[in-house]
Every structure is written in structure tokens, then in C-alpha cells.
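Example for reference:
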Amino acid sequence: MPIALSHGGSNIYSSSSRSKQILVGTKQGVVVLEHLGDSQWRRVHTSLTDWFISSLIIEPESETIFAGAFFGPVFASRDGGETWDRRSNGLTVEDVYSLASVNDKGKVRLYAGTEPAHLFTSDDLGFHWRELPALRSVPSAPKWSFPAPPHIAHTKFITFAPDEPSTLYACIEQGALLISRDSGESWAELNTVGLLADQNRPVEHFYDIHKAIIDPRDPKRIYVSGGAGLYVTSDGGGHWERWNSPDWSPDVYPDGFVLHPGRPDTMFVSAAEHNPARWRDSETPGYSGSRIFRSTDGARTWETLGHGLPDRMRHEVGALCLEDWGQSFSVFAATTSGEVYCSDNGGDHWSLIYSGMAPISKKGHEQLLATG
């Protein structure tokens, strides 16, 4: 089975042996890269070239690949990404930000998050979709917004509790971290309860949500990356702490976020030096200062990674994924300049495995970084 690298799709994989192919979601479609050995990769196919791909997932039961598109619907492929079918019946909002799939009691269920921030689900591999309207019934929903025009929030990321497939989390940017314990039929806010433990202020100020990771050993331990750094709760959202590294700027912008499923204290995060609002206003216009960091103690401390990675990249890391393949694991990072980097030794050394693709990006970020 291949794996996928995209902004809003699956980003943690486990397999018995290293995957030979990786699908990359770009501004000009889906690119399939094939591993030739060592650090050698080649481009074997490109498809959906008229679409800005936001998210890719690979549903293991049917071996169907799904692609979501910014400004577009959901597509499905049964032949490794060579040909695609449009699957949008019932998808009343066609600006897809995120995709996820889960097997719940033998039934495969898909989820699609959109802009504006809605959530849809399908029980027949995307042939029919229905909205889960309770997502927009939480108290904070009327306040959801986004700094950049048109100031509309989106469902940026979707994930599930370990061993509880009916419990899912939706990351609303900007708005809330939401939890549902009944497959999306009802929702509660996790970032509006209790106090930030390190600042003694209401959690209602903690609203810029990017990605959520649930510790596979303890579902009450949740890690969240967002527009103001990294947040951690050990009691299921009752109290939060900000665990930023001392060398991160106050407005650090972590987005890509993965952990090793077999060694959950090992994590990787990609972060721009400052918030995107400053990318055009800095001394170097079109500069993000992005770096990749590793933690081996469950996000308490972080080290900056190099050895093959540029230091403070001008372009942002628009997608990050990890594959645990038994004897070792690989981490892939793709940028808004169309490059893909890979480490096969835990982040100690990196190789540029491909370049020259269209941007791998959240929509709009590639435009902010287009000059420099």
C-alpha cells in the first residue's frame, strides 16, 4: 500500500515494510513518487492537475484513495491514483479542507471537513454524503472566523481516539477543538473548559486550532498545534498547558504535527518562525523561517533538526507525515516550493528526494511565500 503526504489528510501510517510509493497532494494535482532505493525516488504519475489538492487518505479495507480539493469536491481512485471519479453527491459545500476515514465495528466511515466549517460523512465510500449539522451547534460557532479574507473558518483537521472509532475530534481554524463521542451526531468544545495551567486565564482565548494528536496510551492526553504554539492536556481538556520551546518566538506557527505510533514520546513538528501575517512584513518578504523539530520526551523539550534540511526555510512545510514500518520509520516533509524531504533514521539526517512540483500548501500560504 502507498502512503500519502498532504496538508489536511492522514499523516501517521503503520506497515510491516516500507511503502514503495507516496502520493503527494499539490496545487496542481496528485503526484505519485516511487522509491528506487536509498534516497532515490522518481515521479511515475500525475493526475487531477486542474485541482488544488488539500487532503489525501488511503482507505485500507477497499484500497480506495480519496482526494479532497480546495475550491472543489472529493475524488476517489481505485487504481493507485491514475484515474479518479468525482464523489460529491450530498456534499453541499465544495471547498474541502480535510478528509479522514475509520473502521467502526466493521463499517467504513469517511469524514470530510470544509470551508465554511462544516463536516460531512459517508458510509458508502463517498458515493453519498450527509452533513453532521451538530458541529455548528456548539456555543462558540457564531464567533468562528479567520484573519485573512474572506474571514471564514474551516474544518482544518479530523482525527480519532485510539481504540474508540466513534470518538472523533475536529479542529476548527479559527474557532475550537471539538469532540464527538457518537460519530459526529453531537459535539462538545474541549478548549472552553477550565484554565490554561501556565497562564491562569480562560481557555476561551485558545481558539486557533491546527492539528490534534491523541496519545495512543492515554486518550485523555491530547496535543494540539495552533497559531500560538503547542498545547497539551492530561485530563481530556479540563486544563491546558502551553509547551513551547524556549527558542521559539512568541508567535511561532506550528502546523505539521506527527508522532510515532509505537513510540508515542517521539514527535515531529514543523513550524514557521512567525505567524503568516508577518511573512510579507518581515525584512525578507515572502519568508516563513520554517524549521522541523523533534521531541523524544512527549513534547516537553524540542530539538531543531538539520543535516540535510535548510536552516529556517523561506518556504513553509505544508505537509508532514510519518510511516512506522516495523524495523524503522520514515518522516516526509513537503514545502510550498514543491520540494519533498525524507529522513529514514529518526530525523538525524534528511535527503531532498524530489523537487520541482507545484506547491504543497494550505491554500493562500503559497501566495504569501511566492516572492522573496
Observations:
- Residues 365-368 form the longest helix (4 residues).
